[in-house]
From TrEMBL:
Binds 1 thiamine pyrophosphate per subunit. The gene is menD. Homodimer. Its EC number is 2.2.1.9. This is 2-succinyl-5-enolpyruvyl-6-hydroxy-3-cyclohexene-1-carboxylate synthase. Its cofactor is thiamine diphosphate; Mg(2+); Mn(2+). It catalyses: isochorismate + 2-oxoglutarate + H(+) = 5-enolpyruvoyl-6-hydroxy-2-succinyl-cyclohex-3-ene-1-carboxylate + CO2. Gene3D superfamilies: 3.40.50.970, TPP-binding domain. It comes from Brooklawnia cerclae.
């Protein structure tokens, strides 16, 4: 059999399984698959995106997978594979279906010192839910197709309820393309039936209850909000929970948690993955609180090792204590603040972005998402919110946002810090023939990693904090962005910020806002 044939089978299997978004990073060894995917795109079976850098390509695919339900990324052999590790790790922790297609050299060359040859089999280890090895020297397209079906089924978690990334390592031998016309490949229909979730559990009224919503999809966020509103109890919703709205959402809830009301909580109903604040972490570890975890995967969050019940869904009984909810809402509203004097603070910037964003809103980790946690609750449903909170890394935020913009077809705003921006600066490069997403990147620029000022080292050894933690950059970030050819603006006033945010998002735009962290 030939490498071209293997590439055609893999491309056809992806399309047959409903994978519509594929990122291809250039290389030689992945030629058979890149060619087959380009032909599939020409036939209207899927869409190909290209990126020069594999790390950016991996996070672009991650964003596409989050938006579209599943996506794939293709890279050549050698270090190109290793550059995918950060995106793979986030996909594993967040349960995002991602098909990682790594081109490889023949097994006989591994360990020989041959160019661009490494042992790629199982290279991602426990960071993938499955790995498959295919080689073009096999003579069974039927076996290739079956292996792809298993790999994609594992990525989707249709039988395990444990979705995540999978690696398909493809050993291609030369020649990489057919001398004659390409052959059509027939793939059997998708026959893997999904496992069924259990029936929801009735949740009786009575204990002083709060619904806590961590990072979650819009569907899960909607269920969290419905549960709180049905029960008539406080809703404590993180910025990327997609539950942060409605009559039960408590503003500045993490500050209320540290007050008298927090000590009175008797039951927590948890949706999503909460990781954002220490008051929430302390709540989830309390032994005097009943913790009901609602999870749609085989994995569930339990950072305090205190879960009493894990269920697929809940049916709360109405009849919550109106006084209990009212106390929380009043306490949260009392902590809210309005705009201050210049310069702009982080919470002010986050509040402005949250209020103005339409379509999608992507949060970077570090201070910006914590600032957004203090923003007022929007009276309307607002944008769909996203964040890489599986591992809460600062890397890949721009490329993830681009993937979400392309996968949903909606304008997208990214709010991130200056170090996160510098970390993913190369993702502002979009190959000339590729689709440019409608992406507004808002950078909270406080000249370094100010979040590290909350560490114990800030008091114990401030000289070391300055030397190895804060990372002041001293760079004109707007000029760096403009170097890629995108409109970039340094914002110096609230009026200019509001005016820029009110404009529609068209193409890529970067807004850099100087932030005062002293107030």
């Amino acid at each position: 059999m030939s490498s071209a044939r293997l590439g055609a089978v893999v491309a056809a299997a992806l399309a047959a399984a409903g994978v519509r978004e594929v990122v291809v990073c250039p290389g030689s060894r992945n030629t058979p698959l890149a060619v087959a995917l380009a032909r599939s795109e020409a036939a209207g079976r899927l869409r190909v995106h290209t990126r020069t850098d594999e790390r950016s390509g991996g996070f672009l695919a991650l964003g596409l997978a989050r938006a579209a339900g599943i996506a794939a990324v293709v890279v050549t052999s050698g270090t190109a594979v290793g550059n995918l590790m950060p995106a793979v790790m986030e996909a594993r922790a967040a349960g995002v279906p991602l098909v990682v297609l790594t081109a490889d050299r023949p097994a006989t060359l591994v360990g020989s010192g041959a160019n661009q040859t490494a042992d790629q089999r199982g290279i991602f280890g426990v960071q993938v839910v499955a790995d498959v090895q295919l080689t073009s020297t096999d003579a069974s397209p039927k076996a290739w197709s079956a292996a792809m079906r298993r790999a994609i089924g594992a990525a989707l978690g249709v039988r395990t309820r444990n979705p995540g990334p999978v690696q398909v390592n493809l050993a291609f031998t030369e020649p990489f393309v057919h001398d004659g016309p390409s052959e059509d490949v027939e793939i059997p229909p998708w026959l893997i039936a999904a496992s069924r979730p259990a029936d929801p559990v009735v949740l009786p009224a009575g204990p002083r209850t709060v619904v806590l919503a961590g990072d979650a999809s819009s569907a899960v966020g909607r269920r969290a909000r419905d549960a709180a509103e049905t029960a008539g109890v406080p809703l404590l919703a993180e910025p990327s929970s997609n539950a942060r709205g409605g009559p039960c959402a408590v503003p500045r809830y993490r500050e209320v948690l540290d007050g008298p009301l927090g000590t009175q909580i008797e039951r927590v109903v948890l949706f999503g993955h909460p990781t954002l604040s220490r008051p929430v972490t302390r709540l989830l570890g309390r032994e005097d609180v009943e913790l009901v975890v609602v999870a749609d995967r085989a994995w569930w969050p339990d950072p305090g090792f205190a879960a009493d019940l894990v269920v697929d869904g809940v049916l709360p009984e109405p009849g919550g204590d109106a006084g209990w909810l009212g106390e929380w809402l009043a306490s949260g509203a009392a902590r809210s603040t309005g705009p201050g004097e210049a310069p702009i603070t982080g919470p002010e910037l986050a509040a402005a972005v949250v209020a103005a964003a339409e379509g999608n809103l992507v949060f970077g980790s570090s201070n910006p998402i914590r600032d957004a946690d203090l923003a007022p609750v929007r009276p309307d449903d607002g944008p769909v919110c996203w964040a890489n909170r599986g591992l809460s890394g600062i890397d890949g935020v721009i490329s993830t946002g681009a993937g979400i913009a392309l996968g949903t077809g909606r304008p997208t705003t990214v709010l991130l810090g200056d170090l996160g921006f510098l970390h993913d600066l190369g993702s502002l490069h979009v190959p000339a023939r590729d689709i440019v997403p409608d992406l507004r990147v808002v950078v909270a620029d406080d000249d370094g990693g100010s979040i590290f000022r909350t560490l114990e080292i800030a008091e114990d050894a401030p000289d070391l904090l300055e030397r190895v933690f804060l990372m002041p950059h001293g760079r004109d970030l707007a000029a760096l962005a403009a170097g890629f050819g995108w409109p970039a603006h340094r914002i110096s006033s609230r009026e200019e910020l509001w005016a820029r945010l009110a404009e529609p998002v068209r193409g890529i735009e970067v807004l850099v806002v100087g932030i005062d962290r002293t107030r």
